[in-house]
Design brief:
The protein is α/β, with parallel strands linked by helices and about 140 residues long. The protein has one domain: DsrEFH-like (Hypothetical Protein Ychn, Chain: A, 3-Layer(aba) Sandwich), CATH 3.40.1260.
Length: about 140
């Protein structure tokens, strides 16, 4: 009887421990605004999350009018973007289609910023993988 109880307890607890190990904290931020207050908000939120959850995976999907957030000559948060990228606390992904529409070349982006073919697809893919989603207004 005792042996059966141990086996049953193990079978019940194995999935619980497996879920606990696979529940990494992952968040994707969706930003389309050229409002610098929104840019600052994203950085503040990312820093807060990374301080409380150092193991968190954070990403910002940038498209539409938000390109200025990561452009060398326009960004007011350039140092923060580069710091977060360099320290592997976050990744910044810019939509190639948006860049094309705005005639922006990758050389105009801050170091550490990556380009993805389509930001919407990037967001949907991350959500499909279980990432949390935050729309930044």
């Amino acid at each position: 009887m005792k042996k059966n109880s141990i086996i049953i307890a193990a079978l019940v607890l194995i999935p619980v421990f497996s879920m606990a190990q696979s529940n990494a904290y992952k968040v994707i931020f969706d930003i389309t605004s050229d409002d610098t207050a929104a840019h600052k908000t994203v950085i503040r939120q990312m820093r807060g999350i990374s301080q409380s959850r150092p193991d968190a995976q954070l990403e910002v999907a940038i498209y539409g009018n938000a390109l200025s957030m990561v452009m060398k000559d326009k960004s007011i948060i350039a140092e923060a973007v580069q710091e977060l990228s360099r320290n592997k606390k976050a990744s910044f992904k810019v939509c190639a289609a948006t860049m094309k529409r705005h005639n922006i070349d990758k050389s105009q982006l801050l170091p550490g910023v990556d380009v993805v073919p389509d930001a919407i697809f990037e967001i949907v893919s991350k959500q499909h993988e279980g990432w949390g989603y935050i729309k930044v207004m």
